[in-house]
């Protein structure tokens, strides 16, 4: 299965996208770091491309925090084989400073404030769907497309 993350705005501080399922059914907004020609650790969005999503079955401090806060959470969902990046997750957060190169999900999009809103609810909805797919043994991929210039 493939999902799509279509970037539509990069304002130099953050990148905003729409995440949708194969049938163009809206899932959430996505917030990432801004584009940079040269990568700056924790401040540069990942390259556009097609990435497989898998559970990262490693207990990190972040995993522990999520497990304490969210009864439905087990493992982080990680984008695989992102060039020059490690541990790229889809997770909860509202501002570009929360991303560290990851993709944040939210039901509200506020580009003027450089933020997304309702992140926990959006992430839970996405997490439950993706978890069901992964647990069934089916592969799931995310296609990230750059904004049109």
How would you describe this protein?
The chain is an alpha+beta fold and 149 residues long. The protein has one domain. The protein is built from two helices and ten strands; from the N terminus they run ββββαβββββαβ. The protein has helices spanning 61-69, 119-135; strands at 2-10, 15-20, 26-32, 49-56, 76-79, 88-91, 103-106, 108-110, 115-117, 140-145. The chain has an eight-stranded mixed beta barrel with strand order 1-2-3-7-6-5-4-10. A two-stranded antiparallel ribbon has the order 8-9. Strand 2 (15-20) and strand 3 form a beta hairpin. The longest helix is centred in the C-terminal third of the chain and has 17 residues, at 119-135. It is globular, with a radius of gyration of 14 Å. The two termini are 28 Å apart.
Helix-strand blueprint:
Elements: E1 2-10, E2 15-20, E3 26-32, E4 49-56, H1 61-69, E5 76-79, E6 88-91, E7 103-106, E8 108-110, E9 115-117, H2 119-135, E10 140-145
Parallel strand pairs: 1-10, 6-7
Antiparallel strand pairs: 1-2, 2-3, 3-7, 4-5, 4-10, 5-6, 8-9
Task: Write a compact overview of the structure shown.
The chain has one domain. Helices cover 17% and strands 36% of the residues.
């Amino acid at each position: 299965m493939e999902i799509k993350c279509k970037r539509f705005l990069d304002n130099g501080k953050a990148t905003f996208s729409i995440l949708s399922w194969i049938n163009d059914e809206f899932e959430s907004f996505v917030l990432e770091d801004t584009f940079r020609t040269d990568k700056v650790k924790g401040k540069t969005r990942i390259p556009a491309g097609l990435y497989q999503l898998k559970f990262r079955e490693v207990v990190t401090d972040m995993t522990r925090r999520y497990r304490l806060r969210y009864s439905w959470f087990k493992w982080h969902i990680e984008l695989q084989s992102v060039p020059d990046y490690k541990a790229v997750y889809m997770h909860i957060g509202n501002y570009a400073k929360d991303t560290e190169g990851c993709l944040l999900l939210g039901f509200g999009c506020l580009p003027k404030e450089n933020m997304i809103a309702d992140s926990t609810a959006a992430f839970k909805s996405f997490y439950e769907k993706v978890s069901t797919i992964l647990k069934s043994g089916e592969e799931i991929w995310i296609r990230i497309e750059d904004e049109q210039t």
